[in-house]
Structures are given as structure tokens and as C-alpha cells.
Fold this protein.
Amino acid sequence: MCLSEEQQILRTSIKDFVKRYVVPKLNEIKNGKFPRDVLRELGKNGFFNVMIPGFGVQDSYSYSLIVEELASASPSLAWLYVTHVAAAYALSRMGSEDQRSQYIEKMADGRLLSTIAITEPVSGATAAAVQTKAELTGQTWTINGSKTFITMASDADIFIIMARSSSEKPVFTDFILRSDDRGVSRSASLKGSGMPGIGWGELFFENVETGQDRVLGNRDEGIKIIPTIAKVFTIGAASISLGIMDMLNENVLEHIKERKINGSSLSSFQIVQDRYLHMYTNDQAASALIYRAAINDDIKLAYAAKVFATEKAIENAVAASRLFGANGYESSVGITSYIDDALAVPLHFINNDVLTGLFMNSV
């Protein structure tokens, strides 16, 4: 893609950041340690600002470049980056002036880490089926319920949650809760086969009392958070998968050039050439679609980019394992971890099956 001078500088900066701050922490992240210090450095270096009104340029393609570079080194870190940026974006777009002044600067520089908590044990990824309840008595809201499969459940400072705010009709209200609010508890009991270190877990709300100052947006209009964050989520998820493909392609190309059978490199065999060509094409096609989605306001392109990139990343990961042969199944090589990471992305940041319905509604 043709990058502006500012985007070229940004890409160089994030590459340098990855070498300086991410690579030294890769083993810790892969072993499940939450990378709070790295996220803090992302904030200090201004990388959270890119999608926060008033702090950055709000350039969706620059955002995509950051996510791609992070994911090519650590898909887990990129996952955390997308989650936090989406929550900050939602608060900056939907929040009151007081809420923005209280939280946004600290979210932009990484002092406060944030996540969005919608998924529940019963409703799954269907926002309209949320069962967590918020009851208003006078000026006080009382919240009861739970959330599951929440990124940063164990480590976030700020939770943006959706709760059912009427017993008579299916309407919802969004709230800003803090980890130290009375009645908020959490568990990091969930462990996926991929994406280590994302603090995946559950949230529990037991008679959490909060005021009107914690309502995000308008009462009974909480469902609006979905279209608000849709582009940030989908472009981010697509870019995570693109970063996974970038690293897979780099590893595979090196392998097929160096690995020899009867004196001939793997890259000299036509079936290997064909498989690598398809991997390369998937990567480039995903990159082009993400670019189009980022620079256009048509949300259908963002939906399509997410579905295409996430599915092709899985395809490329499986192809890479085949090109590595038995070596690709050996854990130290790392190909199997990319398969597990790639499988996670279609299920999150708006599940691909849910996304299909949203796409058709937007056509």
C-alpha cells in the first residue's frame, strides 16, 4: 500500500518499539504473563492515541499498521492493544465531557487499561440476549450479573459493560465500572489453547451500586456501543490475522529455501511453490482489503475484511504446518501456536457468524 510520510514514520516507530520492548518479553507473554509493562510503554510512546479523538489523528489505517506489526511479533499483545483502544474509543465517542476528562487521558497514556465486557455465560456473543441486570432506584443503579470470556478480566482497571436496564422490554444501558468498585470481582480461570497472556476470564457483579455519572451514553441505548466500536473491532481483528500471516509467510519462505531433499530445496518443488503462492496471495489480498476498509466509511468493507483475513490466517497456518512437515507439529518451532492463535480471532471482536448477520443488515 502507498503510505503517507507520517504513516511511514509510524511504521518505522512501531517496528523499533517491537524490537526494543516486545521481543525481550516474548517468552514471558507466551508463558501466560500479562504484559502490563509493555502496554504501559505503548501508551507512553503515543501508540494508543491513534484512534482517540483529541489525542491522535484518528487514522484507521495507521491503527491497522500498528496492530499488524504488534501481531507479527505477539498476537496476544496485538489482541490486548485492540481491546484497550476499542474501549477508549467507545468512551471517547459516547462519554460525557466529565467522563472523558476523568478517564481518556489516563487511557491514552496507558495508566488505565480498559476492556469491553458484553459476553455472558447464557447469552454468549449475542448482545441482545444479555442477562446482567441494572436496576435504578432514585439516582442509584444496582448491577447484578456476570460476564465471561472477557479479555483483561484479571488485569483491566476499567470495564465498559452492558446490562439489561428494564424488566419489561429488551433495552440495555452501558456502564463504566472500575476494578475496585465494591461488588466487582473477577477470575482469570479461563485458558485458551492460544493467545496466552490476555488475562482471559470472568467478571462478577454482586449488588454493585453506582451513580448516573457512570452511565455511558444514554439510558436504554446501550446497544449503540456495537456500531460505535464495530470498525475498530473488525479492522483490529483483521490486522491481527494479517500480522499472523506475515510471520507465517516469513517463516515458511525461510524454511522452504533452506530445507533440502536429495540436494534440492523444497522451494524447487512445484507443489510447494503452489502452496506458498496461495499463502502469499492470501496475505496480500487481506492487506489490500483491510486498506480499503480502513480508508472508507462503508462498514461492509470492515466486516468483509475481518471475515476474509481471519479465515485466511487459519488457512495459511494449516498450510504452513504442512510445508514444515513433522517439524511443524513440534512445539518449539511455533507453527502450532500460530494455528491456535489464528483460530481465536474469528470467535472474538464480533464473532464471524454474528458478523455475517450484521453484514446482511447493512447491505
